[in-house]
Write a structure and sequence with these properties.
alpha/beta; three-stranded parallel sheet
């Protein structure tokens, strides 16, 4: 089967430089914890594959670590790939390939203006699954749990259950920067003309409401929530040979 990038993703992420500027990075303590669970923390020269690397938000954090990881960053979107390559990360190989804001609907927004932004985001549904639809777990949940009694019959790729954790954080951003981040969502960035102007007006009206908290620089507290999960590959060949 020939894989092809969806038109929504191809068009929605065409402005890779804007995406890279406005999308958030990952808290360093989360990266540290995830690498520990994956058993590659403090392992020099470990080889890591970053699937769906985008413009390299996570990739550059890996490349900057003292372990000097060798990272293979795989990204199907050409403009995203170019933005990542332009960073000149010496220990990263950037490849074309596939790996078959976006808060899940169940997450409660912290403030009223963030609730409005979420309502706008969910109103533009293009029938394409994203992280917020919470379907990514199906890849793992559809496997039979890898116990010693089922592993050979099920032939799973990953062990279960998944390890999972999350961390919340706050970024203080100017309304223009928040809009830039919101506009980088693929279902918003494809909008044009009056429709885009209407969404922008709703967003700025929400951010400028009297109840909205700001600091002395006019920045708003944007509440982030990162979820990370880990598992291990099932070593199928040795187990089958032993059986």
């Amino acid at each position: 089967m020939v894989l092809q990038l969806s038109s929504q993703a191809s068009h929605g992420f065409r402005n890779a430089s804007s995406y890279d500027t406005h999308r958030p990075s990952y808290p360093l303590e989360v990266v540290d914890d995830l690498l520990a669970h994956l058993q590659v923390k403090d392992v020099p020269n470990a080889r890591i594959v970053d699937l769906g690397a985008g413009t390299g938000k996570f990739t550059e954090l890996l490349a900057a670590r003292d372990e000097k990881y060798h990272v293979v960053a795989v990204e199907p979107h050409e403009e995203m790939r170019k933005a990542l390559s332009a960073k000149g990360l010496s220990t990263v190989d950037v490849l074309d390939g596939y790996a078959n804001n976006n808060a899940p609907e169940s997450w409660e927004p912290t403030t009223k203006w963030e609730a409005t932004m979420k309502e706008i985001m969910w109103s533009y549904h293009d029938q394409r699954p994203r992280f917020r639809h919470d379907l990514w777990r199906n890849v793992f949940d559809k496997q039979v749990s890898s116990t010693p009694f089922t592993i050979q019959a099920a032939d799973p790729l990953f062990s279960l259950p998944l390890g999972e954790d999350s961390a919340k954080f706050i970024s203080w951003l100017h309304p223009d920067a928040i809009w830039g981040r919101f506009w980088s969502l693929s279902q918003i960035s494809v909008l044009e003309g009056d429709e885009l102007a209407g969404v922008r007006e709703k967003a700025f009206t929400a951010m400028g409401a009297p109840h909205v908290e700001t600091n002395e620089r006019g920045e708003l507290p944007l509440h982030g929530h990162v979820v990370y999960a880990w598992t291990s590959a099932v070593p199928g060949a040795p187990i089958k040979e032993a059986g």
